[in-house]
């Protein structure tokens, strides 16, 4: 669901940001900021910070569905780090999915119903604004969301579900998710908390929503992660 900056900001003005605030994150009783004394809100799940340990710590910025946002770099780095350092407890891998890449944290049901599109690209990989995006035929699946039937163990690990199951951390931008929530709410004629609840039904289990992708990136760096910038530099700005 790659979205030009102008359209992205227009969506925010049309209700995306309002959805983030008015129908915002669900309060989690007893969360207490994940035990972090600096966290004063129980609205956002910050317990993932406690899971960043070991010698090798990295956070990856994914901003587009084009080329799966560079997901292969996330799994390749983890594979190489494990080969070098040897033990999973010594490797912490964080993926932050934000901006036009937000559809990557949504399940197959969302992809099949709402069919996120990818831009056509011209020479040099630049988005061709004169060409219509291609919408694949149904059924459409999240290309990296969950394992395909008969997938090998290695292939399963390289999906978002497998990555999370193996201890990886996937954080999603709450602002971009607000646009998805508005899209789903509009299709279901829902608003506020009802739209939020329905949108979360399409979220891949284990993905953690953050106030914004930028917040998540900085929080991970403050926890000691080296940052790997987005694979495809956004020609549309950042969220």
Task: Provide an overview of this structure.
The structure is a single chain. With 239 residues, the chain is an alpha/beta fold. The protein has helices at 5-22, 71-85, 108-114, 153-157, 160-165, 174-188, 192-200, 213-222, and strands spanning 56-62, 91-97, 169-173, 208-210, 226-228. The chain has a five-stranded parallel beta sheet, with helices on both faces. α2 (71-85) links the parallel β1 and β2 (91-97). Mean pLDDT is 82; it is low at 1-34, 120-132 and 234-239.
Helix and strand arrangement:
Blueprint: H1 5-22, E1 56-62, H2 71-85, E2 91-97, H3 108-114, H4 153-157, H5 160-165, E3 169-173, H6 174-188, H7 192-200, E4 208-210, H8 213-222, E5 226-228
Parallel strand pairs: 1-2, 1-5, 2-3, 3-4
In short, what is this structure?
The protein is an alpha/beta fold and 239 residues long. It has helices at 5-22, 71-85, 108-114, 153-157, 160-165, 174-188, 192-200, 213-222; strands at 56-62, 91-97, 169-173, 208-210, 226-228.
Calculate the terminal CA-CA distance, rounded to whole Å. 14 Å
Q: What form results from the Cα inertia axes?
A: globular
Order of helices and strands: HEHEHHHEHHEHE
Backbone structural class:
alpha/beta
**Number of β-strand runs:** 5
Provide the low-confidence segments as ranges. Answer: 1-34, 120-132, 234-239
Into which percentage range does the β-strand content fall?
5-15%
Biggest sheet strand order reads: 4-3-2-1-5
- Helical proportion? 25-40%
Task: Please state the CA-atom Rg, rounded to the nearest Å.
Answer: 18 Å
């Amino acid at each position: 669901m790659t979205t030009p900056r102008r359209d992205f900001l227009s969506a925010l003005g049309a209700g995306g940001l309002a959805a983030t605030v008015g129908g915002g994150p669900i309060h989690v009783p007893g969360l207490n900021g994940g035990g972090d004394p600096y966290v004063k809100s129980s609205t956002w799940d910050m317990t993932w910070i406690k899971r960043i340990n070991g010698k090798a710590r990295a956070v990856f910025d994914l901003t587009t569905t084009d080329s799966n946002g560079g997901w292969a770099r996330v799994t390749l780095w983890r594979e190489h780090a494990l080969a070098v350092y040897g033990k999973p407890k010594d490797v912490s891998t964080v993926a932050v999915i934000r901006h036009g890449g937000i559809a990557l944290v949504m399940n197959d049901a969302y992809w099949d119903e709402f069919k996120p599109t990818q831009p056509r690209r011209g020479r040099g990989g630049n988005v061709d604004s004169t060409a219509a995006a291609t919408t694949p035929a149904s059924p459409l699946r999240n290309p990296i969301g969950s394992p395909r039937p008969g997938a090998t163990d290695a292939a399963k690990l390289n999906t978002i579900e497998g990555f999370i199951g193996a201890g990886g951390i996937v954080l999603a931008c709450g602002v971009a998710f607000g646009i998805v929530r508005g899209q789903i709410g509009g299709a279901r004629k829902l608003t506020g908390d009802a739209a939020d609840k329905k949108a979360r039904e399409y979220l891949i289990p284990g993905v953690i929503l953050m106030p914004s992708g930028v917040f998540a990136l900085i929080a991970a760096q403050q926890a000691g992660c080296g940052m790997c910038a987005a694979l495809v530099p956004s020609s549309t700005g950042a969220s």
